[in-house]
Every structure is written in structure tokens, then in C-alpha cells.
Amino acid sequence: MALCPIRFGKVRKCQTRNLANLTAAIKVRDVLPWFSNNAFPLYLAPMAGVTDLIFRRICKELGADVMVTEFVSAEGIMQADERTRKYTEFTDEQRPVGVQLFGADGERMGEAARKIIDWKKPDFIDINFGCPVNKVVARNGGSSLLKDCPVLASVASGVAKAVGDQVPVTAKIRIGWDENSVNAVEVAKILEGSGMQAIAVHGRTRAQGYGGEADWNVIDAVARAVRVPVIGNGDITCGADVARRKSGTAVSGVMIGRAAMQNPWVFREAKHFLESGKVMQEVDVEERWAMVIRHCRLAVESGRNGNEKQTLTAMRSRLMAYCKGFPGAKDLRQKLCHVSSVAAVEDLAAFSLGRIELVEM
Predict the structure, then answer these.
(1) What sign has the CA pseudo-torsion 93, 95, 101, 107?
(2) Which of 183, 262, 323, 359 is deepest in the core (most CB within 10 A)?
């Protein structure tokens, strides 16, 4: 065991630091109970147009621990825009759930957060400092604030002061704007000092978008630099990936995004691997198709995107993602580009499963 320096003053300094770390850890467990008892939570990453009420329900059933809504504009909330407000909806079965906001005015974002809490109290408010999309960045939102730490700090502290006494406030960042300005450690320290109770870090820069590899060395450095939990995000596709990041870095949990679009079973697979060290048997195509059809039916029943035709049209890209890796996937994707009813999806499922059975025979 490493010893503190012999001089009494330095010993006391080390002891004080250790006590502060312990106190911070106890506070985190009280504020964010999903980290209690050495839990290693699996987050579903917020993804615009993907992590809606229905998809979050599916991922929760398949093992996701913590949900985050699609991001919403603080200004849209302030204008009481019904279209914006629907993005904040969730059910109690999905808890713990965080509502994610973006914007560049801390005071206005704090007001928006209060409105959300008045509507339906989420388990936490999350601030988006990571979105790379041009239309968000152009409005000084998302990852644009990684280039302006004073504004980033004012946004984080503004929301924390407004609602931090009611719910925890967390943040999601990228590791930097580009390869020449990787500043995630600095940003994380600012966010911790501004009242953030946890920080999710996507291991890519804004310039990378979703290309290249996530830099988990930077994510690990962030986790070691702050006392609040750090959730690592990027290139998590299976249980082995989760186990590797849990054992090889200081993160307190992981966040899974694009892999869940294709394979929402990834959460169940990850938990199985963490518990047993074994790869779970692959989900067969029949079960996958059953889930695809169920998703379609639930989406139509919700009426969130209009009538059946409008709903299926909006879901086409999602359906194509589900079918990645299916036998004859290229042909299926071409057909899915034109579906406009649940019956059409059911017909494609029957065709796909029939073809597989024929091949096996």
C-alpha cells in the first residue's frame, strides 16, 4: 500500500483529500441512486429521432438501466411548443429517466428545466454539450460550447442553480471540438465545479462526427480527473466491450447508442456477459422480426407521428437499421424503403422467414 509522505502536515493533507473523496462518493450515491452498491449502469444514449417513448420502452425491457430522452430545445420549451413538449414524455416504468436540453443561455435553460419539472418530474435534467449536428451548433448549442468554456460554465451553473435543489443535473460532452482542441478533462472539471452530478463523455471530437474510433484514453482521463461519475460512450457494441471498459478504465457506467438502434438486445447481452463472462446465444431472426413488428404496432398505436402511413414512413430508416445482418438484408432494405403499413412489414417478415426456412431445408 502506498504511504503518504512522512511529514505530519502532508499526511493530514492526504487524509483530508481521501475524506473529501469519500464524502463526494457518498453524496453521489444519495443523489444518483443508480450508481449505489457498486452498480455499473447501462445508459441508453439520447438520439434524435430514435430514442422516443416506444424505443425507450423496448430497451428498458431488454435491460437498459437509465434512459435519456431525445434532446429538446430550451427555447422550444419556453414557447410551450407542443411538438417540442412531446419529446419530454416518458412513463414511470422507464425510470430513471433524464430529459436532455440544449441551448446557450443558462438563465433561459434553467427556466425551461423548471417547466419540464412542473410537467412531469424526471429523475434528472441532462445538458447537451455534445451534439455535432450543424443546425444545433449554428444556434450555439451542443458541441459548439466546447469552444467557449465561459459560456459552457454559465449554462451548466444556470441550470444547476435553477433546479439542482429539485433534481440532479448532469451533462454530456464530446472529447473536444477537433483533434487540435481535445479539452474534455478541462471541460469536465468546469462542469463538476458548476454543479453537474455526472458527466457522459462521447469519445470522439465534434469534427469526427460518428467516424473513426472513440478515444477511451481521454474518457478514462476524464473519469480520473473528477469525483462525479463519468459515463463512457462510443464503440460499445457487445457485452465484451462493456466488460473491457469497466475493467480497463475508471468510468462508472457506459452509454450505448448506435449499436442499440440495430440491436436493442445489446443491454441484455451486456448484463449476461458481465455476470457470467460468457457470450449470450445470438437472438434468432424470428425473435428479431417479432420485435420489429411489435415496435411498428406500438408506434402506430401511440399516434405520435400521425396515422399509420405517416408512422411507417417515419420509421423506414429505423426498420432498415433493425434488418442489418439479416439474411438477404440488402433486398429487405430496398423493400423497407417503401413500406407504409404494419401489414406490409408483416408480409416482409413472412417472406424473410420463409426464405430462411427454405435455405435450411
Answers:
(1) positive
(2) 323
**Residue 356, Cα to own-chain centre: how many angstroms?**
34
The residues, ordered by sequence, that sit 6+ positions from 249 with a Cβ below 8 Å of its Cβ are 216, 219, 220, 223, 232
Here the CATH number for the domain that contains residue 97 is 3.20.20.70
Give the 3-state secondary structure of residue 65. Answer: coil
Give the residue-averaged pLDDT of 257-264: 95
CB 252 within 8 A of CB 40: yes
User: Who has greater pLDDT, 324 or 289?
Assistant: 289
- Domain span at 181: 39-276
Say if 226 falls within a structural domain. yes
Q: Which three cell numbers stand for residue 28?
A: 453521489
Query: Do 208 and 325 belong to one domain?
Result: no
Q: From start to end of the chain, where are the E strands?
A: 42-44, 66-68, 72-73, 97-102, 124-129, 169-176, 199-205, 230-233, 253-256
How many domains are contained in the chain?
2
Q: Are residues 245 and 331 in the same domain?
A: no
In a domain, 168, yes or no: yes
The pLDDT-based confidence of 236 (bands split at 50, 70, 90) is very high
Residues of the chain by 3-state class (helix, strand, coil), percent to 5 = 55, 10, 35
Residue 66 lies inside a defined structural domain of this protein: yes
Q: What span, in angstroms and rounded, lies between the C-alpha atoms of 326 and 336?
A: 13
- Give percent of the chain with pLDDT exceeding 70: 89
Catalytic annotation, residues: 131
Residue 21 placed within a domain: no
Residue 164 sits at the vertex; the CA angle it makes with 139 and 66, to the nearest 5 degrees, is: 80
Residues 226 and 123 in one domain: yes
